[in-house]
Specification:
This protein is an alpha+beta fold. It has helices at 79-88, 110-119, 178-181, 193-201, 232-245, 263-275, 277-280, and strands at residues 5-9, 13-18, 25-31, 39-43, 51-53, 59-61, 67-70, 73-75, 93-97, 121-127, 130-133, 137-141, 144-149, 155-161, 169-175, 190-192, 214-216, 252-253, 255-259, 281-284, 298-299, 302-303. The protein has a 5-stranded mixed beta sheet. Strand 7 (67-70) and strand 8 (73-75) form a beta hairpin. It is globular.
Length: 304
């Protein structure tokens, strides 16, 4: 059942690990935050400990990951951590991090979830704000597209189509809920072995390994343990989509469909929705009583 209350972590969560693209060890702490704070990253390694609100307005780049920035401060590869927050229903948290990239862990959201669940999740004395889609909206770029349609619950229909015979075409239908989310949370990021050298020449994937990504060749999966699900690839794309779309600033109630989507398309879609938010979205605090005449308001980049 969806809760109408906002939530935060019950106590500090400590995490450290290798950053996927920089290859550096990063230390991160997730702290409780007051209601209506949102998810805020703080770069503890920079003068003044600058803050970055995890919001579509702060997306800086989407080159193989989602990076947010404010001024000279940025944090990259936030999508799996953001998916963990969204899947667990955490609305507010302060993420203190001593580097420019979130640790990759095993390439999924599961390690973040495990640590957060141990620390605990607590309800707050404030109503959660949902983004209810009031009219269908679609963005298409070439043969890639993503769309939302009005619905009473949150659901996803994901489709991927890769040239690799090992990955190929996969589809996955998902009704959003905490229990169902845990079945996709452990699905890992992936790439073709031929792409690894190109990424490293570009200064990316320096921390990548078979411990934190599924790597495929033309003949099969190179990871000794194989796949966690036969359709792990499309499930991971769903995980990325959940994490990216949470940058709207709250849960979206809609049927969400996507074909060959990725971080760039997700960001473009959110910007397009945000530009037409008065037409497409309505803010609702109680899903049992639709307040269809209430409009989306924004103050200082956060949900008002």
């Amino acid at each position: 059942m969806i809760s109408n209350k906002q939530h935060t972590v019950a106590r500090k969560v400590q995490i450290s690990g290798i950053a996927l693209h920089s290859g550096k060890v990063v230390r991160m702490e997730i702290h409780p935050a007051a209601a209506n704070t949102g998810i805020v990253f703080k770069r503890t390694d920079l003068p003044g400990v600058p803050s970055i609100l995890a919001h579509v307005s702060n997306i800086q780049s989407t080159d193989l990951n989602t990076t947010i920035a404010s001024g000279d401060a940025k944090v990259a590869t936030i999508e799996h951590l953001m998916a963990a927050f969204a899947g667990l229903g955490i609305d507010n948290a302060i993420v203190k991090i001593d580097g420019p990239e979130v640790p990759v862990m095993d390439g999924s959201a599961a390690p973040f979830i495990e640590r957060i669940v141990v620390a605990g999740i607590t309800a707050q004395n404030a109503q959660r704000k949902y983004f209810v889609v009031r009219e269908a909206f679609e963005l298409q770029v070439g043969d890639k597209w993503i769309k939302v349609e009005p619905a009473d619950t949150a659901s996803f229909e994901m489709h991927i189509d890769f040239k690799s015979q090992v990955i190929g075409r996969q589809s996955f239908v998902f009704n959003f809920g905490r229990d169902s989310f845990l079945k996709v949370a452990g699905c890992r990021t992936f790439c073709h072995v031929n792409d690894v050298n190109a990424m490293r020449r570009a200064g990316l994937a320096l921390g990548g390994s078979l411990d934190n990504a599924v790597v495929v060749s033309d003949d099969g999966v190179l990871n000794p343990e194989g796949l966690r699900f036969d359709d792990e690839f499309v499930r991971h794309k769903l995980l990325d989509c959940i994490g990216d779309l949470s940058l709207l600033g709250g849960p979206m109630i809609a049927k969400i469909s996507a074909h060959k989507s990725g971080h760039g398309l997700h960001a473009a879609f959110m910007r397009a929705v945000w530009a037409r938010r008065d037409e497409v979205l309505a803010v609702v605090e109680d899903l049992g009583v639709r307040q269809k005449d209430r409009r989306l308001a924004v103050a200082a980049g956060a949900i008002a």
